[in-house]
Every structure is written in C-alpha cells, then in structure tokens.
Amino acid sequence: MQGFWYPRTETGRASLLPAPPWHYSGDLLTVEYRTDPARVAELLPAPLELAPQDPGAVALIWADWQSCGDSGEELLDPVRAQYRECFAVVRCTYNGTVYSRCVYIWVDKDFALVRGQYQGYPKKLGSIHQTRPHPFGRAAPRIAPGGRLAGTLAAADRRLAQAVVTLRSECESNGFVNGHPMAHHRWLPSIEKDRPDVLAELIKSGSAHVEAGPAWGGDATLDLFDSPTEELARLEVREIIGGYYRQVGVSWDGGKVLA
Amino acid sequence: MQGFWYPRTETGRASLLPAPPWHYSGDLLTVEYRTDPARVAELLPAPLELAPQDPGAVALIWADWQSCGDSGEELLDPVRAQYRECFAVVRCTYNGTVYSRCVYIWVDKDFALVRGQYQGYPKKLGSIHQTRPHPFGRAAPRIAPGGRLAGTLAAADRRLAQAVVTLRSECESNGFVNGHPMAHHRWLPSIEKDRPDVLAELIKSGSAHVEAGPAWGGDATLDLFDSPTEELARLEVREIIGGYYRQVGVSWDGGKVLA
Amino acid sequence: MQGFWYPRTETGRASLLPAPPWHYSGDLLTVEYRTDPARVAELLPAPLELAPQDPGAVALIWADWQSCGDSGEELLDPVRAQYRECFAVVRCTYNGTVYSRCVYIWVDKDFALVRGQYQGYPKKLGSIHQTRPHPFGRAAPRIAPGGRLAGTLAAADRRLAQAVVTLRSECESNGFVNGHPMAHHRWLPSIEKDRPDVLAELIKSGSAHVEAGPAWGGDATLDLFDSPTEELARLEVREIIGGYYRQVGVSWDGGKVLA
Amino acid sequence: MQGFWYPRTETGRASLLPAPPWHYSGDLLTVEYRTDPARVAELLPAPLELAPQDPGAVALIWADWQSCGDSGEELLDPVRAQYRECFAVVRCTYNGTVYSRCVYIWVDKDFALVRGQYQGYPKKLGSIHQTRPHPFGRAAPRIAPGGRLAGTLAAADRRLAQAVVTLRSECESNGFVNGHPMAHHRWLPSIEKDRPDVLAELIKSGSAHVEAGPAWGGDATLDLFDSPTEELARLEVREIIGGYYRQVGVSWDGGKVLA
Fold first, then answer.
1. Contact C66/B131, CB-based, under 8 Å?
2. Which pTM was predicted?
3. CA distance D231 to D122
4. Nearest-CA distance from A44 to chain D in Å?
5. Could you give the CA distance from residue D7 to residue C257 in angstroms, rounded to a whole number?
6. Which residues of D touch C104 (CB under 8 A)?
C-alpha cells in the first residue's frame, strides 16, 4: 500500500499528504507578550520545564501560507496549497536545552491539520484572517513605518483573538519565542478503553532550510476572548513585548525522537 | 496533562475530542453497487483478503449527523455537534471472519476528521449534501414510495460523486456491505526520515449500541468523477444493487486490536 | 434576455434565481421576547408606526430550510436547495393595519441572500446552526416535553446570538410576532453620487400557501452579543415571552406595492 | 434611516456597505482568449452590439482583493476586507462607443456580492483560488520569466474554470478586453407577478483612480467546465490571446446612467 498518509492505496495518489520534504512560502504577523509563567508551566508535561529566562513569554503568530510537496504540483491547483494559521508558542527546557513549543494552533485546511498533528502540533480548524500589505491603492498598508496590520482568529463561530501591529522600523528578528527547535509530544490514544496511549513520544523538529526578508518591528495590541472549548485566553496578556512582520520561505524534512 | 486529544492541558477543556463513548443520531442515504473485485482487492493490505461472496460489492453512504460525548453539551452549541459525511465501504476477510472496511471518507468538521483518523477512517474534508425528507411543503420528498433523495460529494472544489435514490418500499435492511464490524488500519509514520511507521496496527471496532427506524429501499443512480487527488472513481460502477434510506442512533465505545 | 435574476442570458439557465413561485420546507425555532419599544420604533421609517399592542415584542427565528422553484430540480442537487437563516422580526402599523417586518436577517447561501433582498429582507451572510430533533440515539432531543433545542448565529467571525428552547407542550401557534403579512422596503441607491434612491417602495408580501405540523412551546433563554458591524444586540432582551418549535411548508408567489 | 445598503437603521452602523468611494488593492491574473462572436452577441441586450474589432475576445480574470470604504476600518478586521473573485468580461458598443461588460462573476463574500449587484455585476458566490507569487521559499513562483500562476473557480461544488499563466516578460498592459468603462444593466424585477421590471437601466462606470505595477505577460492555458446552472463554458475557448499578471490599486466612486 502506497501513500504517506491516509487513505493508503495501491498507487498512493489519494494520500492526503505527500512524503516530506514540505515547502512553505508565506507572511508572518507576530505579537509577543508576557503572561503569568504559571500558565505556561501548566502546558509543559514533565520532564519539560519553564525556560530559565523570560519564562512567561508567549508568541501569537498569524501566517498566510502556500505549501507544497517536492513536486510542487499543489501550486498549480492553489486550493490545495493555500492555508492560513494562527498559533501560540511558548518556550521550555528539556535536558538543559531551550526549545519552542506550540501549545495551541488553528488552520483552515485539512492537509495542514493532519500534517501538523503528525508533527505534534495540536491543530484545530479555525477562521484566520491577516491584513495583507500591498504596494498600490488605499485598501492595504505599505511595509513602511506606520503601516498597520491586523490578525483575527475564530473557531466554532466565536472570535478568539485579534491583534493590530503598527510597524515602526526594520529590526533584527521577528521575535525570539519561536526561534528554537520545536519540542512536541506525539500522543495517540489506544483504540481499546482504559489502556495507555499507544504512542507518547517527545520529538524535536525544525526547519531544514529557511530564507527570509527583512524583519519589521513595531507596537502591538492583542485581545484574547474566552470560549467554552478553548483555553488560549488563559494565557492572559500581562505586557506586550512587540509586534513583527516578516516574509519567509521554509522547508521541513523530518525530526528526531527525543524520548 | 488532561484531554483525550490535542491540545492537552491542565484542565482538558480545550481537547478537540472528549473521551468515548461518542453518540450519533442521523440519517443515512446508501447506494450499493458492484465494481471490479480487483479494484477492491487493491485496497486490502495483506493479510486482508476479498470477502468470499460478492467481493466487488461497495456501499457509498451519505450521513447527516449530530454527535456528542457523554455530557451531550455539544447539542446546545450545534456548530460543535453537526457534521456531514460521505464514505465508501467494502468488505474483507481476516482470519476467516468477514469485516466491513471504510476505504474513502470525507467529512466537513475538524472533530469528525480527527475522531475518524483515531479510528482508522481515512478522513479528508469535503463538501457533502444530502436531500432531507420533510413532512410539509413542496421543497422536500416524503419518506414514501416515489420519494427521491440525492447525495452529492465534492472535495478541493471538484465534484466527486452524486447519487439519486428513489424510494420504493420498506425493506429488511439498508444494505449489507456496511453491516459487519469494521477492520481498519491505524498507521502513523515516524517523525524520522526513512524509518518504518511507528504504529501499524489492525483494529476492529463496531457500535456499542444501535437503534434504527424502518429501512427503505429503492432504485438508485450513481455517478463518480475523477480528480487528480482522489481514487474513488477507480471503484467504478458496474451494476447498481440498490438504494436505501434509514434513520439511526448509534454509540461507539472503543475497539480491539486484531494484529 | 432570459432569467429572473442576474446573470441574464439567452437561455436563462445561469440565472441565480428561477421566477416565483418559490417553495420552502423547514423547521423553525423561535424565541419571542420584549425589548424597549423605542428600539423597535428606531427601525420603522415613517409612515410606519409601532404596533398598538405589545409594541416592543421581537421574534428571533432560526430556520433550517430546503427551497426550490416550481421545477423542484434543486432538490436533486441539494447544495442548491439547503440553507439556514436567523432573523429578527418586529411588528408595525401602516394605514391602520398591523404588519410583521424583518429588521435583521442572516443566511448562508447566495440564492437565499439575493432572493431575500429582492423581497426587501436585509440579508447578510452568516453562520447559522440549529439543533435538529431526531427519533433515535443520544445525540438529539426528541420533540417531547423536556426536549432542548439550541440556535446560534455568527457573522464576520463573531457570535451574535445564542438561544436554548426547552419544550414543554404543544400549543396553538409558534408565536405571534411573525404572524402578519410582511411590510418591507425595497431600496436601491442611484448609481450616481448624491442622487436619491432610484427605488424606495413599501411592499407587502406573505405566503401563498402554508401547511404546518403541531406547534410546540416552552421556556427559552437568549443571549445577544455586540459587534462593530451589527445592531441586533441593540434590541436588548427585557423579558422572554416564550420559545417555540414547528415544522412548516410554505410557498411564496409575489407581493403588492403599498406605497 | 441611515445606511447606504440594507439593513438601514437609525445609526447606519449595521449597513452591509458604506457609501462610496470604495477602495481596492489587489492582484489580477488574466487570461484573454477568442470565442465565437455569436456567443458574445447572445449576452448583449439591444441596443448593445458587438465591438467592431476582435468581437469574440473574452477576458477571464482572477482577483485577490482587499477593499474598504473611506474610513479604512475594514483593514483592521480583515475578514471584512478580503475577498476573491473570478469574472468574465467582453466588449460591446453603445452609441458608437466601445465599453467593457462583465457577463459572469463569482465572489466569496457577501459585501462583494451585494456591492457588485448594485453596480450591475451579475455576482454569485463561488470558491476562487489564485497562486500567490512570493519572494522566498519553494512554495511560490517569483514574478520573473518562467513563473507559473494558476487560477481556479468553483461554484455549487463543481469546478467551472482553471487556468495556468506562465510569465514571459513585462509588457504594456494586462490585456485590452477589460480596458474600457463598464456598460452594465441594473435590473430589478417587480415584487408583483407579471409586471415589468421596476428598474432596467443601462449605466456606465469606471475607476475614479487607478495605480498599478508593471504588467507581466506570458503563455496561458484555460479549461472551462460545464454545469447545470452555469453558462461560462458556452464562451468556449477557440484561441488563447495571452496571460497576464498585475498588481493594482483602484478606487470607485459612482457611475452614470446611459439609458
């Protein structure tokens, strides 16, 4: 049976995902802020621990992506290439090394949902929007001082987050919280009742290749809203660190089991 | 960390799925037909084999569901309870016993997608529609001789299937292809390149409880359409067996590992 | 050029709408309540006036519809037949007669949006969900005392309304606010700047034919939420009158110009 | 009552549209081709006539837009600003002058649907996707010779069109078919049966302000697919003229009644 993912068939053509590597081109809008470190610690299963410095730092990141497998065929049928996501990243320590860790994430396509769960991203579907800069006309900001870019997130018909970033100047990077390799758990419950998970591994993974345009930084506002089925707002905003915009191109080609 | 599924948190509230049991109430529209048995055999990894009788039989089933966990809270926030699906079922033999097996399936909500993948259903997102019978007005068929009910399926902006069932009379069951316990594979690729799957188990699962209204049978037409990323149309229609409609209530509460 | 609505072509086949009559089969979930009559009066352009009795009464109605033209062909391609709506109705007086009037309405399909605007309904797109009763299984209420049905409404990624109706018993009707012929304005702005509307007519319209099942009444809760682009929450809930459920079949076949 | 469009209220805040001017920033992907001029003539109600030169020329245009009113507030809540469209344009002659005319168009948001119908665009909802160029990574073409950009269109769960443009070089303009002021009909049927339209005016309208980046031209392929409710495929492709890409910023501020 062929196919990296379900459904597996004789030819593998129907698989929801091609095998890695996977390539991504897109625009990132980031708000970094500090929350109560105890709220971050709640999301770190042992033996993961808080990062030693700035342990309450959180990045909420909007991304407007195109992605494809090595053949690139999705780019000529863009309904299969384009998706948006919004995700919350914290940092943690494992075995003395600092990692980034995605604790909540929403996307708007099935291939992105499943690809992420394979990688240990806790993906749900959501409705994600992000202002696009554009060089012409009055219906878009420019990438320039004073340009204002917003991100919004909703799931299950409820708004969960909205942010506005006002660009000030180019800067060294688009934040530090999402700057480490990711440490994720891959969990799969048993099909049998009252049995332990059949998989519970800690993995690390990062980009095999990255290229990026200049990072822009500026001021940011961020509102988080509660929902009966979400806990993002529990990472309450105590202090804004900054807002960032950057265009990136990334490839991903597998990870490593840590434990 | 609490939560049956991602994201796992201290409280478990954000989990995309509650722990089983899961309950379902819905309406099924089924078309059963015969295809080339070789096309069914292609979808059965060893040691699964074709069913001894009518090995080319296929059921394409549309379902309009509400589902919930044991608390039933989703029913008061129906965006979290309602979903539609269309799925193709064949039969197979394992160790001398006949099983049903879902080979393709599309749903329209994230909780249904992920719940199914946990159960070994090869779910993708799709756009699924199914005529609803109604007792009043001219914009719906009645559940009565001559009533006509249609199902349509699309994914990635392409129509994949459309069926029309014309009810003739009550009958004993709404088909036989989906009448056995399911034999599914649960596969999970390694996060590391060029390693074997970290999980490749054959499981069986069926309903813990079923109740149902009268089955109705009748004539059916079915059209399948090709797509660059789908293989449903490869299960080409050689001969229609029949069309069926039935209302059911089902609970699911875990399965068993076969191998 | 043929076609009731855009696009008009030589054959008329592409028209988004067939000519009336239009037929509807569906399920209505209604919450009636009293708001400040001044808030109702704000929505009544002269010479419309408040209804003399219970002038602050409002009905917020969820409807899960199938609809079709006289050929009924949409019923065999149900993506073209099914839609959901949520709408707020008040009453008014014109020339000594009491009318119903829809002041806000959201639907989830284009044909319903445009059909409504033709009829003077102020339609927008929204995401509308309504619990479906079902006779089997634990994932649906029964139409019986204690059955609980919810409705939710969102637009532009924000939840605007949610209601829960707990059925108590059969009753005479599913409310009184939406029980009169509708008095609507049809407004069309000029394509030229600073010119008056090219159309500003007051019309009345009602069902050409109605059939219905038993009405069920019960208790209700209703929450309205504010949004930067909506004013539904301005019709604030002062006192719940009741909640109702009813299945109906309706045909519509034109209206009359009042002024 | 305030509000450019429904719903009109005391404050005007709930109106689906602000008053013009309307501003647009976006990316256009165009395929121009020749069809049988008789098929174009079918879509031109008298006294409109075919353009004297190249009367069978058609432009099928994909656009990925942000739009806003004069306040620009939609840009900070981008779910209200972003939409995609695909539209077919032909040319016609009225009173000795050549106009462009949109004969079919699909969009994916309500504000765009209604705004267009006000302007005489025959809008329906559809699912529209268009490859985005990007300067980084392997999941996007560059705006450079050899860059390949695709557009796809679906409505009612059926694919209607797909195109691929391969960029060759900068050129003078992104086509000629959509280069004239638009001549559109604004039609509104009477609410009363068997009465003539209450409005049937021919209007012209064009951009109040345009700015644009360099036009790129290249080779193109275009496939049109039939559907029971669409007639786009009737404008069959006889000969491809060219494919184009361009970024534009446009403002619209009203039109003129021609007849």
1. yes
2. 0.98
3. 12
4. 32
5. 20
6. 7, 14
Beta bridge partners of A44: none
Helix C110-118 to helix D110-118 angle (10° resolution) is 40
Q: Which of D111, D132, D148 to mutate to test the interface with A (most CBs of A within 10 A)?
A: D132
Nearest 5 degrees, angle CA D107-CA D110-CA D112? 55
pLDDT tens, residue by residue, C209-247: 999 999 999 999 999 999 999 999 999 999 999 999 999
Please, what's the b/e burial string for C115-125 (b: 16 or more CB within 10 A of its CB; e: otherwise)?
bbbbbbbbbbb
Residue C129: list chain A partners with CB under 8 A: 157
Between D26, D136, D211, which is nearest A248 by CB? D136
Interchain contact, A8 vs B192, CB within 8 Å: no
**B vs C: CB pairs below 8 A:** 148
Cα A80 to Cα A250: distance, rounded to the nearest angstrom: 18
Question: Are the beta carbons of B150 and C78 separated by less than 8 Å?
Answer: yes
Are A8 and B122 a contacting pair at CB < 8 A?
Answer: yes
Q: What is the pLDDT of residue B201?
A: 97
Token look-up 């079915």 returns B222
Asked if A137 lies within 8 A of D26 by C-beta distance, the reply is yes
Asked if A247 lies within 8 A of D81 by C-beta distance, the reply is no
Element (H, E) at C29: strand C22-34
Tokens of residue A169, six digits: 């100047």
* B216, B244 Cβ separation under 8 angstroms: yes
d(CA A247, CA A63): 9
Residue-wise pLDDT for D51-81, tens only, equals 999 999 999 999 999 999 999 999 999 999 9
Identify the pLDDT of residue C35: 99
Chain C residues close to A159, C-beta within 8 Å: 157-159
For residue D53, what are the CA distances in angstroms to B65, D34, D36, D37, D57?
57, 12, 13, 11, 9
Q: How far, in Å, CA of D68 to CA of C197, rounded? A: 22
Tell me the two tokens of residue D206: 């064009």
Measure the CA–CA gap between B215 and B32, rounded to whole angstroms. Answer: 14
A chain contacts of residue C158, beta-carbon cutoff 8 Å: 154, 158-159
SS (H, E, C) chain D: CECCCCCCECCCCCCCCCCCCEEEEEEEEEEEEECCHHHHHCCCCCCCEECCCCCCEEEEEEEEEEEECCCCHHHHCHHHCEEEEEEEEEEEEECCEEEEEEEEEEECCHHHHHHHHHCCCCEEECEEEECCCCCCCCCCCCCCCCCEEEEEEEECCEEEEEEEEEEEEEECCCCCCCCCCEEEEEEECCCCCCCCCCEEEEEEEEEEEEEECCEEEEEEEEEECCECCECHHHCCCCEEEEEEEEEEEEEEEEEEECC
Beta-carbon separation of A13 and B229 below 8 A: yes
Closest CA to B248 of B217, B213, B218, B216: B213
Tens of pLDDT, residue by residue over D212-238, are 999 999 999 999 999 999 999 999 999
Strands (E), C172-234: 182-188, 199-212, 215-224
pLDDT digits (tens, 9 = 90+) for A45-85: 999 999 999 999 999 999 999 999 999 999 999 999 999 99
Contact residues, chain B to chain C, C-beta under 8 Å: 23-26, 65-68, 72, 74-79, 81-82, 127, 129-132, 134-141, 148, 150-152, 162, 164, 211-213, 247-251
Q: Contact at 8 Å (CB) between B88 and B103?
A: yes
Minimal C-alpha gap between A13 and chain B (Å): 6
Inter-chain touch A127–C152, beta carbons under 8 Å: no
Using CA coordinates, name the residue in chain A closest to C128.
A157
Q: Which residues pair with B254 in a beta bridge?
A: none
CB contact under 8 A, D134 and A82: no
